[in-house]
Design brief:
The chain is an alpha+beta fold and 248 residues long. The protein is 16% helix and 29% strand. The chain has helices at 2-8, 37-41, 81-86, 165-170, 203-217, and strands spanning 12-20, 26-30, 47-50, 53-57, 60-63, 67-71, 93-95, 98-99, 106-107, 118-122, 134-135, 138-145, 159-160, 173-175, 188-190, 220-225, 228-229, 237-238. The strands form five sheets. Strands 1, 2, 3, 4, 5, 11, 12, 13 and 16 form a nine-stranded mixed sheet that branches.
Length: 248
């Protein structure tokens, strides 16, 4: 409903995570479910605004979910300590996670049921979350690229001008093998706006709203390869999110 109503009020709804640094530098991280939004935004040196759904108004960025929905398959306490700790907290809801019937211990590495294991928890479970759930206009906007080494397929450089982004935003392409069928090859798949199932207006409408805001507020756009490197499927390997993603 908000994805329909907010644009009518001049507010852009976005499927992205958001955080803000000590100097007020807000960053947005777009992406499909399970492609790293939560991981990229969970930097202990920055304040978390939210990990999934945000609006961009004339006043800045705001969260409208009040919770996180993190993918927890093979979650590491070293690389993602805050998210990993949330899987052990009372009140967190775990989906598809395998539990030992005797010891009641979680096995976050077990994909017996599905790769899409999840943890849902309130924002205040993250120590450095931002209580107002609002911040200023973003200085940096990050888009993932899931097409192996084909970063230039949409005519976008890794550091892109805002005017180029609507094409990538409207026709975002991923290799489904990266996420849904690991180890089984890849096939091209398009997901408009990084959240096609929840889109109700035409893709062009959202893309033009995004373009107008990027140009008005001077945000720097980044296209980050979160797919393969070092060769095609079977030869290369997947990029890994760094422990402190906001410093890449």
């Amino acid at each position: 409903m908000l994805n329909f109503l907010l644009p009518l009020e001049g507010v852009l709804p976005m499927h992205c995570s958001a955080n803000v640094g000590p100097e007020g530098d807000t960053a947005l991280f777009f992406g499909l479910s399970g492609t790293g939004k939560t991981t990229l935004s969970a930097d202990p040196s920055r304040s978390l605004i939210g990990d999934d759904e945000h609006g961009w108004s004339e006043n800045g960025i705001f969260n409208f979910e009040d919770g996180c929905y993190a993918k927890v398959i093979r979650l590491s306490p070293e690389a993602e300590p805050q998210i990993h700790a949330c899987t052990r907290r009372f009140g967190t809801i775990l989906e598809n996670v395998v539990v030992d019937p005797l010891s009641r211990r979680l096995d976050l590495n077990d994909d017996l049921l599905t790769e899409n294991t999840r943890g849902a928890y309130p924002l205040d479970y993250i120590e450095n979350y931002l209580p107002p759930k609002m911040a200023g206009h973003p200085r940096n906007v990050v888009f993932p690229d899931l097409r192996c080494q084909r970063c230039h397929a949409a005519h976008l450089a890794p550091h892109s001008r805002p005017g180029h982004l609507p094409l990538h935003f409207r026709l975002h392409q991923q290799d489904r093998g990266h996420r849904d069928r690991p180890g089984q090859g890849a096939r091209n798949h398009f997901q408009h706006l990084f959240w096609r199932p929840f889109m109700v207006h035409r893709p062009y409408a959202y893309a033009e709203m995004l373009k107008a805001r990027l140009l008005k507020y001077g945000a720097v756009c980044w296209l980050v390869n979160t797919g393969w490197t070092g060769g095609s499927f079977g030869l290369g390997k997947r990029h890994q999110h760094p422990a402190h993603p906001a410093r890449f």
